[in-house]
Amino acid sequence: MRRVVPFIHVAVFLLVLHFGARSVGPLPPMGSFLDPVRGVWAVARRADQPGELRVSIPTLGDSVQVLMDRRSVPHIFARNVEDAYRVLGYLVARDRLFQMEVQTRATAGRLTELVGNAALELDRTERRLGLEWSAERQWGAMDPDSRSARLIRAYAEGVNAYQDQMTAADLPLEYRLLNRAPLRWEPQHSIYLFKRMGRMLATDLSDLRQVRIAGLVGVEAAQALFPKHSPIQEPVQPTGEGTPRFVSFEIPPPRTPHQTPVTNPHLRAGLDGMLGSGRTRPARASNSWAVSPSRSASGFAMLAGDLHLDLSLPSIWYEVHVVVPDSLDVYGATFVGVPAVAVGFNRDVAWSFTNGQDDVLDFYREVFDDADQPTRYHLDGEMVPLEVRVEEYYGRSGDLLAVDTVRHTHRGPLLDTEFGPLSMRWAVLDPVDALEPFTRANRARSVAEWMEDAARLEVPAQNGMVADRAGNIGVQHGGSFPIRPDGSGREIESGMASANDWEGEVPASDWPRSVNPDQGFLVSANQEPVDPRQSDLYLGSEWWEPWRALQINRLLRADSSVSPDEMRRFQIDPWSYRAHLFVPRFLEVAERTLVDKGLDSVLVDVVSRLAEWDRRYTRDNEAAVLFEIAMTRLEDLVWDELVSPGEERRVATPGESILNLLFDQPESPWWDIRATEAVETRDRVVLRSLEEAYREAVERHGDPTRGGWRWDRVRRADIPHLTRLPSLSALDVAVDGGTATNSPLGRSTSFGASWRMVVQLGSRVRAWVAYPGGRSGNPISPWYDNGIPGWAAGELVEVEFPESPDDMPSDQLLSRFYFGGVR
Amino acid sequence: MTLGRGLLRLLLLSLAFALATAALGWLTVPVLGALWGFISRDEELPARLAGWAAALGWAFLLGLSAVSGGIFELERKLSQLMDIPTGVIFLVFLIFPALLAGSAAGAVHGVKTWGHETEAERR
Fold it and tell me: What is the pLDDT of residue A620?
């Protein structure tokens, strides 16, 4: 036995050393992971923030002081703007290093290098779209002495200064779990993030959708189901009528098209996955409104902004205050990785944005020399060489996973679609300086100046809402809007003629804008920017349904003396204009049937519940779930013609404002359910949707008398970590709000108000904010998710806005950081 | 060896493991364990003592981290992430250096004393 024991020891030693030094399966090397000083436990030690920190950044021109207030928001006091953003880069790297890398890699299509083969299809999508390619081209073409280039470089210097000073103990948790080292930050990575925003916010697929729908129901019906203009007009630019305008038109019946619709579900699924299907609204929307002094309780102009985006931990936003005497004094939310405040305020103006929803993406049908291995394409009677880009995809260990050949025409990348290869002309890929508008807007001193500066914002187009200390309010729908030869971008054009290319951009002087309207307020909630009676400019057609716009306008019209707290309550108002419109429709049909024929017990219960409902999506209400399922069932029954033969999902879903129109056309063939022999009309289909909704609600949520229909048991907000790991996420957060309420909580439960802000511009600027997250990306930090409870409760916290370090009240000060030796 | 002397050796060796890990990282554990195995005599049970000392040394260092808070929450989150019961990671944390140091000490000591019979075995 004695002679055997050493062998056992050797075997155990080798085994344990192997686990210690190398990854085994999903486990990182245990030695460095468990090390009590440098290992994962350091994440806990780094969670809190020091009372004082002294840091050296080699390229700092002068000293910088940062005060962390009681909410752990950094207030940067610098002597020049580049130093300020160097320090911002350092702080963001310190707090959000992993997030910066994931965002960058996701945009660049290089996630496989971090997580392996599982991300290959995602990466292929992004590389084919060309976001990295266009960002690199843009950086290469940028004037290195331009302000944007200098700020982007300064920010990168700060990020890399932090990385250079990192020790093993500073490595974020995610890197330890992945057994990876952080990516070196390059200046152009800031541009990647702008491309990413464009990808999220400026992907209009109306041309593909129209072709698909027309292939099912005919061109006339397709145009009526998806009109260019909303049938409920409550536009961003006020009409002066003081009330929404409801437009009525006949929806032509579905016609059997001459051609068999092109259905290659795999290619369509691939394209849908790449760009979003257009079947449901993309989950990016926002509210903003401004109130003039005449309608403000304080007599000062006010502005509210809440940006509805995908919720995540850490937050998409990094809250900061930047002061450079005589140059900059701006507070607000920055994009992680970008040296400017995107949404916020300074001493003179406050601003926010809502997505413009504009059509800046067109597809062209190209014809090639060789269908299988194209090298040239037809253009104006000649064969023009295609630009070719070879994309290689590597795994975690540098192993080659795949190679793609991406071809470009002069318009943009070629994509394989069910309509054949199409080239994309997409404004997101254009080389524009997206930072400069924000840099200039951060310094604006008036509405007029801000609107002039924001005029340089190109992609993604935005409704910019602004108010100033002098009491002015304004909104501008600004961006890079292509001028098309046929005036509209809702068809797939022939790529054989350059005459079909975009002819230029709509000049800024023609952008829809409104300043100091008589009504005393302005509202933007992604609705159509301008009434078509006032402008025939084609900007797009993918406007959000106007439910939030209608409700916010309704609230502001009813209140001529709005306070900041009322602005806050309006942001979270759970009342639904959508329910207000449709519930009476349902009840009218049910009550008519009750009189004529009587109702069964199910319908009696349905009618009772809906009639008693106050249309508010509060946590404790028990009618919203029934209404939501009824609406879904109704859409499924009505729009059955929009399902391709042999498939189950609709190609696209018309807006509910179209459904509302259809209610006034009870004999329309659209009510007929194709799967039945009988010819249904409106009342039969509505009753059926209510019955089926009730039964489905009981099946999914139990007996309605047992509390299972409470809204906060049916739908809750999810705020997932970037990795989607549940233990690092905040899941099942109970909130008020539902589909299309001011603070929406849709079927995608990880979408909602990512940032809320109310600003009052008086002699002293006051502001209140909330967001579902915190400064730190460390899941153990008390500043990781500290904002969630208040955000869920609809609360806002007043911010500190000191003009100098001495102005910060001592009881509001948490820490001081000194950069470059300030004392 | 008396109990007192044994405890003293344990504490001193634990301190050595703690200081070495703090200074140079986890790889010092097998190195120190091997060294201990080389200089120890049979009756000092080198593998066992090295194992206990390494675990104790690491526990001491982790205890220092616990002062600043957060390690229990971190362990809980890691346990959820790995779908294992809470506390298992702490257990693994102690077992890892114990096995590494103990097996290193035992292996080296065994090689060193290979072929050398003890007095009792000779009789």
Answer: 94
Check residue A258 and give its pLDDT.
55
**What six digits make up the tokens of A356?**
């413009």
Please judge whether A31 and B78 are an interchain contact, meaning their C-beta atoms are less than 8 angstroms apart.
no
Q: Helix crossing, B3-24 with B28-39: angle to 10°?
A: 150
Average pLDDT of A552-562?
97
Could you tell me the CA-to-CA distances from A692 to A61, A627, A629 in Å, in that order? 69, 11, 9
Residue pair A100/A337 in contact (Cβ under 8 Å)? The answer is yes
A247 in contact with chain B, both atoms CB, cutoff 8 A: no
- The predicted-structure confidence for A267-282, as pLDDT tens digits, reads as follows 555 566 555 544 444 4
Flag if A42 and B68 touch (Cβ within 8 Å). Answer: no
The whole-angstrom separation of Cα A366 and Cα B88 is 61
Q: CA-to-CA distance for A151 and A81, rounded, in angstroms?
A: 8
**Side-chain half-sphere CA neighbours of A18 within 13 A:** 8
Please say whether the beta carbons of A393 and A403 come within 8 A.
Answer: yes
Parallel, antiparallel, or unpaired for β A317-324 and A730-733?
unpaired
Select the residue of B61, B74, B78 nearest A36 (Cβ to Cβ): B61
Residue of B nearest to A177 (CA): B78
Cβ neighbours for A26, distance < 8 A, ≥ 6 positions apart: none
Q: What are the φ/ψ torsions at residue A206 (nearest 5 degrees)?
A: -60, -35
Calculate the alpha carbon distances from A694 to A637, A713, A739 in Å. Answer: 15, 17, 19
Q: Which amino acid, residue B76? A: R
The number of C-beta contacts closer than 8 angstroms across A and B is: 111
User: If we measure between CA atoms, which residue out of A318, A328, A326 comes closest to residue A84?
Assistant: A328
Report pLDDT digits (tens) over A640-691. Answer: 999 998 888 999 999 999 999 999 999 999 999 999 999 999 999 999 999 9
Q: Which residue has the higher pLDDT, A275 or B37?
A: B37
pLDDT tens digits, one per residue of A13-65 = 999 999 999 999 889 999 999 999 999 999 999 998 889 999 999 999 999 99
- Spatial distance between the Cα atoms of A169 and A406, rounded to a whole number of angstroms: 42
The answer to pTM > 0.90 is: yes
Q: What is the 3 state secondary structure string of A473-530?
A: EEEEEECCCEECCCCCCCCCEECCCHHHCCCEECCHHHCCEEECCCCCEEEECCCCCC
Tokens of A411: 């318009």
Instruction: Name the more confident of A594 and A767.
Output: A767
CA dist A762 and A36 (Å) reads: 53
pLDDT on residue A282: 47
Token pair 């022999």: residue: A677
Determine the Cα–Cα distance for residues A758 and A796; give it in Å rounded to an integer: 8
Asked if pLDDT for residue A237 goes beyond 60, the answer is yes
Average pLDDT estimate for A126-132: 95
Which residue does chain B place closest to A16, by CA atoms? B100
CA pseudo-torsion sign A58, A60, A63, A67:
negative
- Per the DSSP assignment, residues forming a β-bridge with A798 are A768
Would you call B31 helix, strand, or coil by DSSP? helix
- Averaged pLDDT for residues A125-135: 95
Cα distances (angstroms) measured from residue A156 to each of A149, A348, A493: 11, 29, 41
How far apart are alpha carbons A612 and B10 in whole angstroms?
A: 75
Tokens of B63: 């205890």
The per-residue pLDDT of chain A, averaged, comes to 93
Regarding beta strands A521-524 and A730-733, do their DSSP bridges make them parallel or antiparallel, or are they unpaired? unpaired
Residue A449 and residue A279 in contact, taking contact as beta carbons nearer than 8 Å = no
Picking from A37, A43, A723 by the largest number of B CB atoms within 10 A of its own CB, the best residue to mutate is A37
Across the interface, of B58, B73, B100, the residue whose CB is closest to A17 is B100
The alpha carbon of residue B42 is apart from the nearest alpha carbon of chain A, in Å, by: 11
